[in-house]
Design brief:
It is a single chain. The protein is built from no helices and 9 strands. The chain is mainly β. The chain has a single domain (about 10-100), classed as Immunoglobulins (Immunoglobulin-like, Sandwich), CATH 2.60.40.10.
């Protein structure tokens, strides 16, 4: 998703996969000017302690108690430009496998 203003924000997930093993990291990143604030919702609410973040990104680690489930995570990147707030979002749905990521 892309907004075409001075506050352009491009939101993406990595990896771009439909199945993720336990222990893998799902990362949402966004670029913008100014740098956007990233929020994760959905399955991310289940892993508040398993989230990490940095400038322009936020991630979560796939938990073992999610095995066999199909989950959706929504990423919203918010920034403000000249008094206007831009909040594009993108969702990803994935299956959790029991194999362990190493």
């Amino acid at each position: 998703m892309r907004l075409y203003t001075d506050g352009a924000v491009d939101v993406k997930f990595t990896p771009n996969a439909t199945s993720l093993p336990v222990g893998s990291e799902l990362r949402c990143s966004a670029r913008g000017n100014p740098s956007p604030e990233i929020q994760l919702r959905g399955a991310a609410d289940l892993a508040k302690d398993g989230q990490k973040s940095g400038a322009g990104w936020r991630s979560l680690v796939v938990q073992s108690d999610w095995v066999g489930r199909t989950l959706t995570v929504e990423c919203t990147a918010t920034n403000d430009v000249d008094g206007q707030t831009f909040s594009p979002s993108r969702s990803v749905t994935f299956n959790v496998t029991g194999e362990r990521f190493s």
